[in-house]
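Last lecture ended with a question: if I hand you only a sequence, what can you say about the shape of the protein? Today we answer it with a concrete record. The protein is Lipocalin-like domain protein. Below, first the input exactly as provided, then the predicted structure, then a couple of comments.
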Amino acid sequence: MPNNVAKATGEGARVLAGTWTLVAADVQHPDGSRARDYGADPKGMLVIDAAGHYSLQIFKSERPGFASGDKAVATPDEYKAAVMGSSTHFGTLSVDPVAGTLTFHIQNASFPNWQGLAQKRSYELTGDVLSYRVTPRPNGDVPISIWRRID
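The predicted structure:
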Protein backbone atom coordinates (compact mmCIF):
# COMPACT_ATOMS: atom_id res chain seq x y z
CA MET A 1 0.00 0.00 0.00
CA PRO A 2 1.29 3.51 -0.72
CA ASN A 3 2.44 5.49 2.31
CA ASN A 4 -0.54 7.86 2.22
CA VAL A 5 -3.06 4.99 2.40
CA ALA A 6 -4.08 3.79 5.84
CA LYS A 7 -5.83 0.43 6.25
CA ALA A 8 -8.22 2.13 8.68
CA THR A 9 -5.54 1.78 11.33
CA GLY A 10 -3.68 4.63 12.98
CA GLU A 11 -5.16 7.88 11.67
CA GLY A 12 -7.83 6.08 9.60
CA ALA A 13 -9.07 4.18 12.65
CA ARG A 14 -9.30 7.34 14.75
CA VAL A 15 -11.33 9.01 12.05
CA LEU A 16 -13.66 6.25 10.80
CA ALA A 17 -13.73 3.45 13.39
CA GLY A 18 -17.12 3.19 15.04
CA THR A 19 -20.75 2.51 14.35
CA TRP A 20 -22.64 4.53 11.76
CA THR A 21 -26.37 4.68 11.00
CA LEU A 22 -27.71 5.36 7.53
CA VAL A 23 -29.11 8.86 6.98
CA ALA A 24 -29.78 8.60 3.24
CA ALA A 25 -29.25 6.24 0.32
CA ASP A 26 -29.76 8.46 -2.71
CA VAL A 27 -28.92 8.30 -6.38
CA GLN A 28 -27.80 11.09 -8.69
CA HIS A 29 -28.99 10.60 -12.25
CA PRO A 30 -26.88 11.56 -15.29
CA ASP A 31 -29.03 14.70 -15.77
CA GLY A 32 -27.97 15.89 -12.29
CA SER A 33 -31.31 15.24 -10.60
CA ARG A 34 -31.28 13.33 -7.31
CA ALA A 35 -33.75 10.76 -5.95
CA ARG A 36 -34.10 8.22 -3.15
CA ASP A 37 -32.46 4.92 -4.11
CA TYR A 38 -33.73 2.78 -1.22
CA GLY A 39 -37.10 4.37 -0.57
CA ALA A 40 -38.25 7.24 1.63
CA ASP A 41 -36.85 5.88 4.90
CA PRO A 42 -33.93 3.51 4.26
CA LYS A 43 -32.31 1.69 7.19
CA GLY A 44 -28.71 0.69 7.51
CA MET A 45 -25.64 0.25 9.64
CA LEU A 46 -21.92 0.49 8.92
CA VAL A 47 -19.50 -0.82 11.53
CA ILE A 48 -15.75 -0.24 11.18
CA ASP A 49 -13.30 -1.61 13.75
CA ALA A 50 -9.84 -0.31 14.64
CA ALA A 51 -8.18 -3.06 12.56
CA GLY A 52 -9.99 -1.95 9.39
CA HIS A 53 -12.68 -4.64 9.20
CA TYR A 54 -16.13 -3.43 8.23
CA SER A 55 -19.69 -4.68 7.85
CA LEU A 56 -22.29 -2.70 5.89
CA GLN A 57 -26.04 -3.20 5.48
CA ILE A 58 -28.60 -1.04 3.64
CA PHE A 59 -32.31 -1.92 3.44
CA LYS A 60 -35.29 -0.34 1.75
CA SER A 61 -37.96 0.07 4.47
CA GLU A 62 -40.80 -0.48 2.02
CA ARG A 63 -39.79 -4.04 1.10
CA PRO A 64 -42.91 -6.20 1.11
CA GLY A 65 -43.03 -9.33 3.22
CA PHE A 66 -43.45 -12.73 1.59
CA ALA A 67 -47.12 -13.73 1.46
CA SER A 68 -46.21 -17.32 2.39
CA GLY A 69 -44.27 -16.27 5.48
CA ASP A 70 -41.59 -18.73 4.34
CA LYS A 71 -38.21 -17.53 3.02
CA ALA A 72 -38.02 -20.59 0.75
CA VAL A 73 -41.46 -20.03 -0.81
CA ALA A 74 -42.01 -16.72 -2.61
CA THR A 75 -43.06 -15.30 -5.93
CA PRO A 76 -40.45 -14.02 -8.40
CA ASP A 77 -41.59 -10.45 -7.62
CA GLU A 78 -41.16 -11.03 -3.86
CA TYR A 79 -37.63 -12.38 -4.37
CA LYS A 80 -36.79 -9.47 -6.69
CA ALA A 81 -38.03 -6.89 -4.15
CA ALA A 82 -36.01 -8.58 -1.39
CA VAL A 83 -32.80 -8.56 -3.44
CA MET A 84 -33.21 -5.11 -5.02
CA GLY A 85 -34.23 -3.64 -1.66
CA SER A 86 -31.01 -4.52 0.13
CA SER A 87 -27.26 -4.18 -0.19
CA THR A 88 -24.88 -5.86 2.23
CA HIS A 89 -21.17 -6.60 2.21
CA PHE A 90 -18.21 -7.01 4.55
CA GLY A 91 -14.43 -7.09 4.37
CA THR A 92 -11.66 -4.58 5.06
CA LEU A 93 -11.43 -0.86 4.42
CA SER A 94 -8.54 1.32 3.32
CA VAL A 95 -8.55 5.11 3.42
CA ASP A 96 -6.58 7.63 1.38
CA PRO A 97 -7.23 10.95 3.14
CA VAL A 98 -5.11 12.91 0.64
CA ALA A 99 -7.13 11.69 -2.37
CA GLY A 100 -10.37 11.64 -0.34
CA THR A 101 -11.10 8.01 -1.18
CA LEU A 102 -12.26 4.93 0.68
CA THR A 103 -11.71 1.48 -0.74
CA PHE A 104 -13.94 -1.38 0.33
CA HIS A 105 -12.05 -4.68 -0.11
CA ILE A 106 -15.15 -6.87 -0.30
CA GLN A 107 -14.83 -10.40 1.06
CA ASN A 108 -18.50 -11.29 0.66
CA ALA A 109 -21.63 -9.51 -0.54
CA SER A 110 -25.34 -10.00 -1.09
CA PHE A 111 -24.58 -9.27 -4.76
CA PRO A 112 -22.24 -12.18 -5.60
CA ASN A 113 -20.49 -10.29 -8.42
CA TRP A 114 -18.90 -7.96 -5.81
CA GLN A 115 -17.15 -10.76 -3.89
CA GLY A 116 -13.39 -10.32 -4.00
CA LEU A 117 -13.54 -6.84 -5.54
CA ALA A 118 -11.99 -3.60 -4.31
CA GLN A 119 -14.37 -0.67 -4.76
CA LYS A 120 -12.97 2.84 -4.47
CA ARG A 121 -15.32 5.66 -3.51
CA SER A 122 -14.75 9.37 -3.02
CA TYR A 123 -15.80 10.46 0.45
CA GLU A 124 -16.35 13.48 2.67
CA LEU A 125 -16.27 13.50 6.46
CA THR A 126 -17.84 16.52 8.16
CA GLY A 127 -18.03 16.13 11.93
CA ASP A 128 -20.00 12.94 12.55
CA VAL A 129 -21.39 12.71 9.00
CA LEU A 130 -19.71 10.48 6.40
CA SER A 131 -20.85 10.55 2.79
CA TYR A 132 -19.48 8.77 -0.24
CA ARG A 133 -20.26 8.30 -3.91
CA VAL A 134 -20.28 4.83 -5.42
CA THR A 135 -18.84 4.14 -8.88
CA PRO A 136 -21.50 4.94 -11.52
CA ARG A 137 -23.86 2.15 -12.50
CA PRO A 138 -24.05 1.03 -16.16
CA ASN A 139 -26.95 3.49 -16.72
CA GLY A 140 -24.87 6.40 -15.34
CA ASP A 141 -26.64 6.66 -11.95
CA VAL A 142 -24.31 7.43 -9.03
CA PRO A 143 -25.43 6.06 -5.66
CA ILE A 144 -24.70 8.34 -2.69
CA SER A 145 -24.63 7.00 0.87
CA ILE A 146 -24.78 9.29 3.90
CA TRP A 147 -24.03 7.97 7.39
CA ARG A 148 -24.06 9.51 10.89
CA ARG A 149 -21.78 8.23 13.65
CA ILE A 150 -23.77 6.85 16.60
CA ASP A 151 -20.95 5.98 19.01
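Comments.
1. Residues 26 and 50 are 28 Å apart (CA to CA).
2. The longest strand covers residues 18-28.
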